[in-house]
Amino acid sequence: MNRYHGRVVAITGGAQGLGLAMATRFAAEGATVAVADVNAEALAGPLRADVVDVTDSVQVNAWIAAVVEDFGRLDVLVNNAGIIRDNRAEDITDEDWHAVLDVSLTGSFHCARAAFGPMKRQGYGRIVSFSSMSWRGNFGQANYVAAKAGIVGLTRTLALEGARHGITANAIAPGLIETPMLASMNGPARDKLTGKIPMRHTGKPEDIAEAAAFLAAEAAGYITGVVLDVDGGISIGSSIR
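That's the 3-oxoacyl-ACP reductase sequence above. Prediction below.
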């Protein structure tokens, strides 16, 4: 497939895990890919890579402007950068609250705001932002859940504001995916969670890359404001069988 020939894709948190899988997928389909991450060491690779802190709007604006200047356009923005600082609500510090919200939610806003101008001028754009299956609520993740639920609201608003300009905005809510974050979970806890997945296995980064490549495609132009669960069915609910 060559759906992204001539398209320019910008991905945050693109140095590893889901971001790297998506960058690889878009590039394989012909896209020019620019990735951003705060981890300078992990950014080494064949794709254009920039050290960008998405919590800093000045850095984000400069990055998006440079991508547009160098490649002439910006067709797809993938807001993937995110962190976790899990704890019970009464034990979450101010620092951990703001850190998670600043990277996941405020960072996504910074990037979307910077991308909206170029996308409006060209009359075309796709914004894919990352929520989580946890956005509906999850024990010990008040900060993370607030950020990921905020992504849903942000996405729906961007969809409304971008529709008349040929810009779609959608969110992906991954379930348990084989990433470095999941790898840090101990065996019993991991097995317990996996047992709740109707498909009885975790997902792969490539599953997320497939979803992103679909939502960001030109052919998906009539899909906007949705949250796509990619979670093996865990968000559906429990079963008595």
